[in-house]
Structure of PiggyBac transposable element-derived protein domain-containing protein:
Amino acid sequence: MLMGIVHMPAYTDYWGKRTRYPLIADLMPLKRDKEASIGLGGKVVIALCQTIRQKPAIIYADNFFMSLELTHILREEYGILSLGTIRTNRLRGCQELLPTDQQMKKKKRGSSAQVVCNKNKLAVVKWNDNKVVTLISSYIDSHPIETIKRYDKDEKKKVHVECPQIVKHYNKHMGGVDLADMLISLYRTPFKSHRWYLGIFSQLIDMCINNAWLLHKRDGKNIMLKDFRFQLFEGLTKSNKIVKGINATEDIGEDLKIHKPVSVRPTDSVRFDDKGHLPEAGDETMRCKYCKSGRTTVFCIKCNVHLCFVVGKQKRNCFRNFHTK
Ligand SMILES: [Zn+2]
Ligand SMILES: [Zn+2]
């Protein structure tokens, strides 16, 4: 549908009879008159929210996404409560009932003002914290107002500032988003590509790594993020893989090998599977099952055959050679 430079389809074309695009049309229903007003950000939120199974759920978003319509639709149509910052040009008239940002700035730090719509169950709150922030929620408003500690530039110390409940909730939960951004910026996977979606892919992987690290730390493992990433790299590249021999002891000559074994050998699928073939010291000295002349107490615990391992000038590693094709 989007191939070549034709025309960009109208948003509603995705649901059209002839132009239906199942990837989007199946994902979210077209509630044209309602959802057309929520903008791209809102549509993304709704598409993502369709995957939420457990309800009631609460979602948090910043002002790129939030609008009165979205907050309302989420609550009424999807049973999802929300809280987020909102741009003042999206207030649909309720800015008339609130002081302007300029008026708010003149008030003392921590003061707030709110408008509540009981019919649509929405609350919009303005709060003055050096900068004026506006928030919207379908489940919480200013009350109860608490106090928080904030650094005061003029007094050069921490002071108590009044803080509406909606702000407390927002900071508590959006803090996670800021933290995620911060951690990703520390060690970002460099992934410059013309294929734009690879950037999203690497972002997702970085997020997974950071979340894994946070869980690891929660378990009491104190490790730096950088070291964690190295460990992860080592683990993923080496575990379940065979380290191919560097400086491996040379195999013995063909004439010294046993070619027609008398006693039983493990089948090749076991012998060469590179799992759990560990040496153990036996009580008896037995003949090596790889070379013709060696005698040893060392045997493989999996194959249960004796194999010699000789160090020194005449070094010989029958144990390894027996298990390598
Ligand atoms: Zn041997
Ligand atoms: Zn073995």
